[in-house]
Design goal:
The protein is 28% helix and 17% strand. The protein has 26 helices and 27 strands. A six-stranded mixed beta sheet has the order 5-4-17-16-15-6, with helices on one face. A six-stranded mixed beta barrel has the order 22-26-23-25-24-27. The chain has a five-stranded parallel beta sheet with strand order 10-9-8-12-13. Strand 9, helix 8 and strand 10 form a beta-alpha-beta unit. Helix 9 packs across helix 13.
Length: 696
Amino acid sequence: MTHDPTAATIVRGACPHDCPDTCATLVTVEQGRAVRIQGDPDHPFTQGFLCTKVNRYLERTYHAERVLTPLRRVGPKGRGEFVEATWDEALDAIAARLNAIRHSADGPQAILPYSYAGTMGLLQGESMDRRFFHVLGASQLDRTICATAGMMGMRMTVGASIGADAEALPLADLVILWGTNTLTSNPHLWPKVTAARANGARVICIDPIRTRTAEQCDEWIGIRPGTDAALALGMMHVLFGEGMQDDDYLARHTLGVEQLKARVAEFPPARVSAITGIDADAIVRLAREYGRSKAAFVRLNYGLQRHGGGAMAVRAIACLPAVVGHWRHPGGGVMLSASGNFALDKAAVQRPDLIPPGTRTINMSLLGQALRAPDAGVGGPPVRALVVYNSNPAAVAPDYLAVIEGLGRADLFTVVLEHFRTDTCDYADWVLPATTQLEHLDLHWSYGHLYASLNRPAIAPLGQALPNTEIFRRLAARMGLDHPCLREDDETMIHQALASPDPKMRTVTWETLQRDGWVRLDVPRPYAPFAAGGFRTPSGKCEFFSERMLAMGLDPVPDFTPPHEFPERVPALAARYPITLISSPAHQFLNSSFANVGPLLRAAREPEVALHPRDAERRGIAEGQAVVVENDRGHFRATARVREGIREGVAWAPGIWWAKLSPDGRNVNATTSQLLTDMGAGPVFYDNLVEIRLAS
């Protein structure tokens, strides 16, 4: 039988983007060109469909504005003026400049990597790049911009980023979607929600905004931003007060129940109502419905931890299933992330043993502060070089004006690995063409389910694009960094990652991934991780009282920590800026990815800000008018959307728009701050008081 080179082939892959669904994909290739992408119908979580964004992935890959050759800046920083160059020219110039900084009085710690989840793949996201910067001796980056507060809240309570199994959700008898717009940010969970509803479960959404998800739920509870911990404590007040707790589970599998009882006694429904803006009777009804259920599934997402008390909010909510014993049953519990189930050998891949002693770490949420010269304010030498990949800090980092000021420094050498000329690229000295997911090999885990995936390249790299791993390999060689680990290939690193002794990883083998594309971890189906205790904390119990937090100088018992800009906490500021602004993702964008893809850009229309009719009326604002959203940090323009489905005193500006595609060259991060969360040192994007006025 002869091979037909014109025949279509189907290549298995995985969605690389920062979403809990980590979809398995099937890419159809004809004559070397990808012609179709679809969700794998056999994957138990993907179930054959992709989201609004990734359905457009071929348009993104073959976009006319893809960066396909190295680019050298020729104009002023910020103007985005470049000329094409060869790889040899780019590597020679970059190596020479980084080596000069490395051997200067400032030393290699004057070089800072900046990356996050532009791809969630192990190889292209966090492998050879880490080895490169470790061997170089560059500053370390604390990658806090998304999830660290919530992760710390879970870690201090249940011990790890492990929660209820999303596949078991149909077994739940109550579903609470708490601070999550599931249809936008976790759409493959929705069929599980509808299955639970078909089995008799009610679905409740707790969110300051009546999102597209809230519209589909049985009840929407419009909470004040940043008050979720108070609601959880109020629910526990009712649960204990009415004897709805599971005393056996508490005795066997928790630590500090008496201290928790004392704390929740301070949060009667009337007080919680004053904090949260929720009617006291509704708080009692919610607590009773939760307490009477046997396996309530509480889905949290990262929006509710993006304020000054974010970690404590997650910690308080994470206590709920232990109080009533819902962890006993599949479908019961709390889920923020499943990532802690995946015990890949990341140390073998990243080689943290190569980090020189005394190397400083810079928090990526303080980039604006770190780039200020001559005193960076972060300790150690000023940042002289910035290497950006898998991120677009000029759009996504907090305190936009401070970041732009830093990126605009004439003495800052900036290199960006990218697919497109983003806002950040406009400030770069060199832009290097990176491959997309269709063009490289990668290994993926998930933070929303229990399947690992292999992404195989479907097409050859377009133009002169190279995988991130290969770019760092070539740059290391050009700089004379000769450690053997800098020469290992991608497949070798995958084998290193999979050589894990953890029993959950037994099913995840190179052979299985090559054959099937994806595989479930070796855990029961359905999976109830804490049915018999076994929490990952030092005590092995769900820790209502945390000795670790006490040692950190923090309250060891869950409490309500208000946002930095909570109106009652800063009344003078709130008098000037009385609106709390939330900037969760637009349905068409994923952070700043896809924000330049034509159909998605058109569907998103323009930067918008939604506000309550009474707030609009006070300001003389009507639907569709141009407005300015402002505070002392900055301002941006948007189009007003007046809607009932938002709490009074709250506004919503869906993001994240590229600044260059916005009406005034700014986006919502012109108003956000560089303040940090209570634990995890994360950003506080939704802890943001503003005023809104008609544009002149």
